[in-house]
Design goal:
This protein is α/β, with parallel strands linked by helices. About 35% of the residues lie in helices and about 10% in strands. The chain is built from 10 helices and 10 strands. The longest helix has 20 residues. It binds {5-[(3-aminopropyl)amino]pentyl}boronic acid and zinc ion. The site of {5-[(3-aminopropyl)amino]pentyl}boronic acid has 15 residues, from loops.
């Protein structure tokens, strides 16, 4: 199986995230990629390769062009105003209520104003390497999509930073550009047919849902921890089912905190039934391993042994799979869990797991 990865992705390393009012060490770190690469190394079933270039067109097909321009310029802009900044984080965020009844606000001119116009939280800092990494993650996703469009049954894009919280005109949740949505839209245009997105990250992919909410040709199906108590809080409820022509083309399956393998398996069957009943086309999998029981921020409790059978069930859809990395923050076991998932998706029979340094 082809594994697409770029060295630019390690250049994005934020110094902190602000959570519950405090700066804390970030969860979304480049050591996550190292963990995954170590687990896939020296195994001929995985062939690593670099992404191809696709340019900005597939990005602005799903994102507001001014968001891409903002991300491209943000770091330089802060340096030009002479501010010493370790990382760009908003302090004043455009909550819709601020403009209630007054129409839209213009994009501010000052760097402090601008970041709060585009970013919805305090956990998604911008540093010098952020834009190159985010662009590389998109190329990784698109290269995986192209391989699948050209006939591979399965390809894995090791995207970092993740993407599924980034919406048409906003970013947040450790995400800057929506890798999965960009790949899905590219596939729709390339194949002329429908595409499904199966979001298995523990957090609801509010950005992906938003981008395709009124679309009937991109089915969005997500299993995630209940947003009533888990980030992103403001989207991912079961009542959200799409609108306009997209009515019925969004399916949210929220799970209570603490849910384990069995509850998850039941919800997965519902998710797969919905995809199975849709017109055949490729499936983009937003793969988060933050459903794992030891994940420091995910409230679900999947065991390590669950990932391979979950992936085998997804593969039983018998549709081409573009698997893209989203979250997963227990670094010591992240690579092992990704590897189990990918082997399950590839239909490799069960085998004793190799030991992972530091994990056992
Ligand atoms: C990105 B992806 C941690 C609170 C949660 C944001 C989570 C973003 C997850 N202090 N912070 O869906 O894995
Ligand atoms: Zn997540």
């Amino acid at each position: 199986m082809q594994v697409i990865q770029s060295p630019l992705q390690a250049g994005h390393e934020v110094p902190f995230e602000v959570a519950r009012g405090r700066p804390i060490p970030p969860y979304e770190v480049s050591a996550r990629v190292a963990s995954i690469l170590a687990a896939l190394a020296d195994d001929e079933r995985f062939s690593l390769r670099a992404p191809d270039g696709f340019g900005p067109e597939p990005i602005v097909a799903v994102h507001e062009p001014r968001l891409l321009r903002y991300l491209e310029r943000a770091w330089k802009e802060w340096r030009q105003v002479g501010t010493t900044v370790e990382a760009i984080v908003p302090d004043t965020i455009l909550l819709p209520g601020l403009r209630d009844g007054m129409g839209t606000a213009p994009e501010p001119e000052s760097p402090s104003g601008r970041v709060g116009y585009w970013c919805f939280d305090t956990m998604t800092a911008i540093v010098e390497g952020t834009y190159p990494a985010a662009r590389a993650a998109v190329e990784v996703a698109l290269t995986a999509a192209r391989l699948v469009a050209d006939g591979e049954p399965l390809a894995y894009g090791l995207c970092r930073p993740p993407g599924h919280h980034a919406g048409r005109a906003m970013f947040g949740g450790y995400c800057y550009l929506n890798n999965a949505a960009i790949a899905a839209e590219w596939l729709v245009r390339r194949t002329g047919g429908p595409v499904a997105v199966l979001d298995l990250d523990v957090h609801h992919g509010n950005g992906t849902q938003q981008i395709f909410y009124e679309r009937e040709d991109v089915l969005y199906v997500s299993l995630h921890a209940d947003p009533a108590t888990t980030f992103p809080y403001f989207a991912g409820y079961a009542s959200e089912t799409g609108s306009g022509r997209g009515r019925g083309a969004t399916l949210n399956l929220p799970l209570p905190p603490g849910a384990g393998d069995e509850d998850y398996g039941l919800a997965l069957e519902q998710a797969l039934d919905r995809i199975d009943g849709s017109t055949p086309g490729p499936v983009v999998v937003s793969l988060g391993l933050d459903t794992y029981e030891e994940d420091p921020i995910g409230p679900l409790r999947l065991t390590a042994g669950a990932f391979r059978p979950i992936a085998a069930r997804v593969a039983a859809l018998d549709r081409p799979l573009v698997v893209l990395q989203e979250g997963g923050y227990h670094v010591p076991t992240l690579g092992r869990n990704v590897r189990s998932w990918l082997l399950g998706a590839a239909g490799v029979p069960d085998e004793p797991e190799r030991g992972i340094a530091g994990a056992d």
